[in-house]
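Re: weekly structure request thread

Next one in the queue (612 aa):
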Amino acid sequence: MRHSLSLLAFALLPCFAHAISDSTLLAAREAFRNNDSAQLASLGNGSGDRDPLAAWPGYWQARLALDNGDDNPSRAFISNGGNAFLRERLLNDWVQSLGKRGDWDGILRVAPALSGEARDADSSCWLDVATLNRRQTVASAPDLWQNVRLSDGCARLVEEQAARGILTPAQTEARMRLLLAGNYLTVARRLAAAANLGERFFTAGGAEQLVQQLLTLGKNNPVAALERAAASEAMFSKAQSGFLYGQLALRSAQRLNMPQALDAFERADPQQLTDEQWEWWLRATLRQQDWGRLEQLSRRLPEALAGKGAWQYWRARSLQALGRGNEATPLLIKISFEHNYYGLLAKEELGTTLEAPLSRSPTPLTLQRQLLADPDIQHALALFELSLRNNKPEWREDGRRVWRWALRGRNDEQLLAAAEIALERNLYDMAIYAAERTVRTHDFSLRFLTPYRDTTRRYASQLEIDEAWVYGLIRQESRFLNVARSGVGASGLMQLMPATAKWVAGKMGLPSYQVNDVDTNIRLGTWYLRHVLDNLSSHPVLATAAYNAGPGRARGWQAAMPLEGAIYAETIPFTETRDYVQKVMANAVYYAGAFRQPGNTLKSRLGTIPAR
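Done, posted below.
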C-alpha cells in the first residue's frame, strides 16, 4: 500500500496567506478577456510576490501592452524575476508580437533568453525568419511545407524558404496546391508573391484551376474525379498530374477503396507526397495484404516515417510473410522495448507476452518533500486548488499546463514522486502524465491507475463485459477526470455525449441523472458499451471504434472478407479513432495484467474482424 501524504503534503507547502485573493484573480482574468487595461492595472501586478498566483495580473497587463506594440511592461515583468512559467510564456508571446511587427532585430535580442524546449513552435519559426532576414543563413529543414494549418510564424517561415530557394520548386508548388485545395486563399496569395509564382494558380480556366476543380469533385466522388483526370491528362504538366493523382489517391484510400488508391498512388509524384499520403499508401497496401509491395514501399519512406514504430512493425510483418524472418527479428526486438501498442504487438511476434505490469515501492518522502517545496510544482497545485474552490475549469487547464511545464527535464525518480503527489490529490490525469514520462524506471501501477474500482467492477460484472477493457477505455477518454468535458460536449469519466446519455438513461428507466456523477457516468457508459458490443458481432475492436466514431462508421470500415484486427485498426480512416482504438486495446492488456487475467494478449483481443 502506498503511504499517505494527506497531512504531510499540505504541511510542507509554504504557509503564505494568499497575497492575491480569488476574487482579484477572477476579476483580472475577466479584464484581460475584455481588453480592459485600466481595470487590470488597478488590480496590481504581483511582481516578486511569493504567492505563486500573484504574478498572473502582471502577465496579462504585459500581454495587452504587447498587443498595442508596447514592450516595456514585458521587459519589466521579465527583469523582475518571480514566476518562471509566466516569464517563459511572456517571452514567447513577445517574440511572436515582434514577428508580426517585422522587428527582426528585436527578435534576435529577445530570443536568446528562450533556449531549447523553452521556445514554442511559433517562436522558433519567427526566430528562423529573423535569422534569414538578418543573417541570410538557412535556419530550418524544409519539412513545414506540407502542413497548411501553420501558425503565423511558421507560415511566414515557409514563405521565406520558398523565396530563398530553400524549398524545391516542386515543394513550393505542391504547397500552393494544398493551400488552394484547403481554401486558404490569403496564405496562398502571400506564398505566390513570396515565391514569384505570378497569377497562374489563380487564372480562371487554366490547368491549375482544373486541378482544384477535380480535387473538389474528389472530396465526395474520387471515382469520377479520377476518370476526369485521366481524360484531361494532356492538359496537365507532370507536376500537376502527379499532385492531382496523389491527392485523389489519398481520398480513395480514406474511403477504403484500396485498389483504386493504389493505382492512383503509382501515378503520383513522390516529391509532392505529404507524410499523410505516404502513410495511406502503406495502409492501402496493407489492407490488400500485398506483403511484397508493402516491403518495397517501406524502403522508400522518408526517413522520419521509416523510423516510426508503426511502420517498423509492419515492415517486420511483411518480411515475415515473405519468409525473411531473420531480417524481421531485429526490427521487432527494437520495437518491443516500447511500452505501447506496437511494442506489445512486437513482443507477441517474438513469442513473449506482457507479464504483470511492473510496480514498485513508493518514492522516498524526502524526494516528495523536495518537489513540494519547488515553486513551479507549488504554482501548478495552487492553480488546481483555485479551480476546485471556484469551479472554474479554465484555471484547471492552466494548472495542467504549468504541471507539464514543471516536469520538463525531471529524472525518473522525480517524475514518479510527482505522480505520487498528484495521485494523493486525486489529480489522476496529472499522475498518469508524470508516470508515463519515465525512461528507464517505471511504475505501471501509476501509469495505469484504477480509481473507482468497486463501481467499475460492479457494472462490468453485471453487464458481463471485460473490466480491463472498460478501464482501458476510461483511461483514454478522460484519464479518470470525472469533470472532463470535451470540445464537442461529451462529459464525465466515459465522455458521454448529451444525446447518448439521454437515450441510454431512457432505455434504463432513469428519469433523472447527473452525467458527471461517477457512479451514474460509469453505469450509463458501460450500458452503452454493452449495447454497441452486442450490435457489432460481440467484437471489442468494433465496439471500441463505435464508441468513438459511431456504430455505422465502425460497421462501414469492415471489409468484404474477414480481416486481421490489427489491419482493421491500422486502416481506420479517422486519425482520432485509429489512435483511440489502438490505445484502448493496448491499455486493456496492461489492465488485464494488473488484474491477473489469464490468456491476456493484444493479438487475441484484436482477433479477426468478421466480413461486413
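The radius of gyration is 27 Å. Residues 3-17 have pLDDT under 50 and may be disordered.
Next request, please.
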